[in-house]
Specification:
The chain has two domains: about 90 residues, 2-Layer Sandwich (Zincin-like); about 140 residues, Metalloproteases ("zincins"), catalytic domain (Zincin-like), CATH 3.30.2010. About 20% of the residues are buried. Strand 2 and strand 3 form a beta hairpin. Helices cover about 50% and strands about 15% of the residues. By secondary structure, it is of the alpha/beta class. The strands form three sheets. It has a three-stranded mixed β-sheet with strand order 1-3-2, with helices on one face. It is globular and about 55 Å long. Helix 1 crosses helix 2, helix 4 packs across helix 5 and helix 7 packs across helix 8. The structure holds zinc ion. Zinc ion binds next to helix 8. It comes from Archangium gephyra. This is M48 family peptidase.
């Protein structure tokens, strides 16, 4: 098959049409440059609408199409490439959504994403996981074992996800907040903050955090009645209470959050 393709190409090159194609190729912009130009255009369009500086990063994610953060006056947006050539109404919705979490804008964005889903790459969670460094066994807590036990006990072994300690954070000074766990629907990977891998952190507390992230696998983010995204819908929170050490874990967190915030984690 590959050989046949090559042959065709060689034939074409000797013809005048082939020469024209080759000349055109030599002036065609590189894909990266083209992307840069489109990204700048998108930044400019958003800047006009948001009346603030905007920095856009374009990605090829398979689940999370858009995230944003504000750093003082600057809006930082991470967007799927489908937004590069989005029509004005979508750009306006994007700006409204980022600025005020506008429910109508959110619905419009969802529709746009749905219409463009053909551009979303299909990657299996297993393929995504191959690129991650999985470290489920800590010095004090074995996340793999915790996960397996919870899976058997609460989910009949049906949770098809992987688990690992997250990488050591780059900032080592005391934190103001800590994200103890996360779940990525893209890779189906649960990440647990390495600060939890300390002898003073009781096993039931780590279990509780893992249990919470497992529930994210069961209850996907959905839209509430007010149109806003609901990460922890009521049924999620109800289910969470079934954890055997629920109140004990909550009490431990109240007492010891400071300890977790100050934990020094080395890579
Ligand atoms: Zn959560």
């Amino acid at each position: 098959m590959a050989r046949a393709k090559k042959k065709n190409l060689a034939k074409k090159r000797s013809s005048p049409a082939g020469r024209i194609a080759r000349e055109q190729q030599s002036v065609a912009p590189e894909p990266n440059r083209l992307l840069k130009v489109w990204r700048r255009v998108l930044e400019r369009r958003l800047r006009t609408r948001l009346r603030a500086p905007v920095a856009v990063e374009v990605h090829d994610n398979t689940h999370t199409m858009l995230t944003f953060q504000r750093h003082r006056a600057l809006w930082r947006l991470r967007l799927h490439h489908m937004f590069l050539a989005a029509p004005d109404e979508v750009i306006h919705a994007l700006a409204d959504y980022v600025r005020t979490g506008d429910a109508q804008a959110s619905v419009l964005l969802d529709k746009f994403i749905e219409r463009n889903k053909a551009y979303i790459r299909r990657v299996s969670p297993a393929q995504m996981r191959k690129r991650l460094r999985m470290e489920p066994v800590g010095q004090h807590h074995d996340l793999g074992r915790i996960f397996e036990r919870l899976n058997e006990r609460y989910f009949r072994g049906r949770i098809d996800a992987a688990i690992t300690f997250g990488p050591a954070p780059r900032v080592t000074r005391p934190r103001k907040s800590i994200k103890m766990g996360s779940y990525s629907a893209d890779s189906r990977v649960i990440r647990i903050h390495p600060a939890l891998d300390q002898p003073v952190v009781p096993r039931y507390f780590v279990e509780w955090i893992v249990f919470h992230e497992m529930l994210h696998h069961v209850y996907r983010t959905r839209r509430g009645e007010d149109g806003r995204r609901c990460i922890h819908p009521p049924e999620f929170l109800e289910h969470e209470k079934r954890f055997h050490d629920y109140s004990r874990a909550q009490a431990w967190e109240m007492e010891n959050l400071d300890l977790l915030l100050r934990a020094r984690v080395s890579a």
